[in-house]
């Protein structure tokens, strides 16, 4: 279990993490989600003792990382800096890590097997594809058979087969009762592998929820309506708790807060023609962007800008 309590981290005048509290429980894969610069890597570095909170505390299995006698058996991490000597084989890279940390040699073959690199274990790591490099990084994280597994952007750049592989691996680690915590700035990626979500923006907690709950909240709330009298229809529908936004095409509206049938009935009663009435599921991406909209640090993404334009 990872417990982050009222953690603030400042670098000079920059606040990277701001009074952040959350718990990552064993037995489920938890995603750590936030736009670029949200403070995910900083938080992960504090969890594994590479950085110290300015305020607050971070505990892993009941203690700060540095207080564990055999920390590699407690926490295995793949953080952004993947320092692998390109001329060294995967096997030798892992062996060097194992021997310097008192881990038996046989464990190297075990983790190579676990990540599916047994057949290329003797090849130069420098010749590895991105996906193979990710697998090697994960193998290193698992070397100490840790209770807590922390991976920074593990899905980044993986092909669909690689994503399925990592989902199965992480789920089986969680099923064994381990705590699995993985970061991403893409909800589409993280929703494929995680069950629970901790969402941050500008170093602060935005949501601590399950992926299923996020989907439930996101789904079925927008009805797309097309009418040659969209303006009249918009005025008719606007009410407490109802929002009407202009859609992508002239005559298109996006209505929130009314069911499709209700919109159709009201339009009929007012004698307004309706050419299309389509209940749509808001995508997880859309829900995430709305959630984090105010906390995108480095300007708007194209997608956010597009969202704003269509809803104007
Ligand atoms: N050593 C440092 N010195 C100064 N500022 C830093 C340092 N490390 C991080 N920051 C700043 O803190 C903020 C949070 O950075 P962090 O890397 O933790 O975010 P992130 O969510 O991991 O982003 P990304 O998805 O881009 O990796 C950013 O504004 C970053 O520039």
What does the secondary structure layout of this molecule look like, with pairings?
Layout lengths: L1 E10 L2 E11 L4 E5 L6 H8 L7 E6 L10 H4 E4 L11 H11 L5 H9 L15 H13 L5 E5 L7 H16 L3 E6 L2 H7 L2 E6 L2 E7 H8 L3 E5 L3 H8 L5 E4 L5 E5 L3 H10 L6 E5 L3 H9 L9 H9 L2
Parallel strand pairs: 3-7, 3-8, 5-6, 6-7
Antiparallel strand pairs: 1-2, 1-4, 8-9, 10-12, 10-13, 11-12
Helix pairs in contact: 3-4, 4-5
The structure holds adenosine-5'-triphosphate.
What number is the mean pLDDT?
86
Tally the helices: what do you get?
12
Give a quick account of the main beta sheet: strands, pairing sense, barrel closure.
Answer: 6 strands, mixed
- List segments where confidence is low: pLDDT < 50 over at least 5 consecutive residues: 297-312
Bound molecules: adenosine-5'-triphosphate
């Amino acid at each position: 279990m990872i417990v982050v309590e009222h953690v603030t981290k400042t670098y000079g005048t920059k606040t990277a993490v701001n009074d952040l509290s959350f718990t990552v429980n064993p037995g489920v894969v938890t995603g750590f989600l936030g736009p670029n610069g949200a403070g995910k890597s900083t938080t992960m570095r504090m969890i594994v003792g590479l950085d110290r909170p300015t305020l607050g505390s971070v505990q892993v299995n009941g203690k700060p990382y540095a207080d564990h006698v055999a920390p590699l058996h407690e926490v295995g991490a793949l953080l952004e800096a993947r320092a692998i000597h390109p001329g060294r084989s995967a096997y030798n890279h892992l062996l060097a890590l194992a021997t310097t940390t008192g881990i038996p040699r046989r464990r190297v073959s075990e983790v190579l097997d676990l990540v599916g690199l047994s057949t290329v274990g003797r090849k130069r790591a420098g010749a590895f594809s991105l996906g193979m490099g990710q697998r090697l990084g994960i193998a290193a994280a698992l070397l100490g058979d840790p209770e807590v597994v922390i991976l920074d952007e593990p899905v980044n750049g993986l092909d669909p087969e690689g994503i399925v592989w990592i989902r199965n691996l992480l789920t089986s680690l969680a099923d064994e009762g381990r705590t699995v915590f993985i970061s991403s700035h893409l909800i589409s990626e993280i929703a494929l592998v995680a069950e629970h979500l901790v969402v941050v923006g500008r170093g602060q907690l935005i949501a601590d929820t399950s992926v299923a709950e996020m989907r439930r909240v996101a789904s079925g709330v927008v009805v797309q309506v097309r009418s040659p009298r969209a303006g009249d229809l918009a005025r008719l529908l606007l009410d407490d708790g109802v929002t009407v936004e202009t859609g992508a095409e002239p005559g298109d509206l996006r209505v929130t807060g009314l069911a499709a049938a209700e919109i159709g009935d009201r339009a009929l009663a007012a004698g307004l023609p309706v050419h299309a009435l389509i209940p749509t599921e808001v995508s997880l991406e859309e829900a995430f962007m709305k959630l984090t909209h105010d906390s995108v640090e480095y300007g708007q993404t194209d997608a956010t800008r597009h969202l704003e334009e269509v809803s104007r």
